[in-house]
Amino acid sequence: MMKHNGGGIGGLVLGVVASLVTGCVLPCATDVDCWDGQVCINQQCAVASDHATSSTSSGGSGSASSSGSSGPASSSTMAGSGSGTSSSSSGGVAACARPMLLALIRSNDGAGTARGEVRRWSLASGTPTPCSTLTAGGQLDPRDESMAYVPPHFFVTGGQGRLTFYSMETDAQHWRYNQPGGQDGLPLSIFPVTGPAGQAAVATACSLFFNDPDPDFVEVVDPTTQVRLARWELDTAPLQLGISVLTMARHPTRASDIIYTYSTVRDLRTVPLPFNNTPVVVATYAGGVPTGFSRSLHTYAPASGAARVLYSFNPGGGTTLGLQLWTDSGTGALAQPTFTCTLPECAGGHVIDAAADPTDATRAFAICQPGNDQGITHLVRAGPAGGCDTVLVDSALPALSQVYRLAVAD
Predict the structure, then answer these.
(1) Residue 161, strand partner residues
(2) Helix (H, G, I), strand (E, B), or coil: what is residue 8?
(3) What are phi and psi of 397, to 5 degrees?
(4) What are the start-end ranges of the E strands in 288-373?
(5) Residue 254 contacts by C-beta under 8 Å, 6 or more apart in sequence?
(6) How far apart are CA 371 and CA 375, in angstroms?
(7) DSSP-based three-state secondary structure for 155
(8) Helix, strand, or coil here: 122?
(9) Is 10 helix (H, G, I), strand (E, B) or coil?
(10) C-alpha dist (Å) from residue 320 to 42, 304, 345, 384, 406
(11) Span 247-302, pLDDT tens digits
(12) What is the distance between the terminal CA atoms of the chain, rounded to a whole angstrom?
């Protein structure tokens, strides 16, 4: 079965799986190793309210305490709805003032020759200021395809058959989710969503084949309980969006909905995540999706101000960047002016990924791929009136590396 995304190839997907596992906890050394709303009690992450009256064995004080000097906790393995390993570190990294731009650096030779990294820039001053680089002690897989920020202090990367969560506070791997049954879907995009019980969850749009640029199914996991909440294939009820979905992200103002692009229409479409297994009703979110080979879709929802949607694509040449921005103040999407860039780093306008600039709603960060050279990428900060500044050039990266995905932590 063929897809229709300018050469993308898809296929049939497996059946829907949705299961829950309870009783899984994360090991920890300090509170920063735990998810939001949890604390580290006796080297295990727990909801603070559940342990308000816990006592320590050494002092008998009757108050809860955490042990941050006992060294790394041992790994644990989840089973049933997918396996995973979790670990923690008592180490720390230099602070990086938020808002912060994250850039995934990966190997460009397909063999994972170079080291995986996440470069960081503080945007607190309005100008990108480099911070220390994250490597998770060399555990970052240089072949990973996708990345996202997960509040309050985690980033997650996606590789064949897995998601890996890392702490930005300790620069350590926190938990790895492996798709159950030996499945090896490739996460093309990752985005935080709200789960069926209102909990913080993480969704990913995956393809079934390594070289397939289009998603075939959506999966949702709960990083706090370390379980998979749901999996839906795109061409089967209740999601049933068809096999020509090109890109996908969380809805910019509704955390339990998604938006996506489709090959045969020039609209952004939206549906709720069907946790109740009720067939979804597709609605149009915005029109005016540019023509050209699609690359990525991202949304940004700040605590105040307009939410943003960024669509990256290959326009096929010229100085107009392959980047479309919509803003949404709660009344619907409003298309913004075209981005242009005359820098040689963006010759041809091909943008493979982008992120909102949290300090300026009219600007965005973009990864350019000049001349369609798949091994060369540059990071720029672009504006609608032709302002385009270089943030990171390919020559400043280690050999056989490229900047590949972006995220914003605020």
Answers:
(1) none
(2) strand
(3) -95, 160
(4) 293-300, 307-314, 323-328, 333-335, 351-356, 364-368
(5) 270, 272
(6) 10
(7) strand
(8) strand
(9) coil
(10) 56, 30, 13, 10, 20
(11) 999 999 999 999 999 998 999 999 999 999 999 999 999 999 999 999 999 999 99
(12) 42
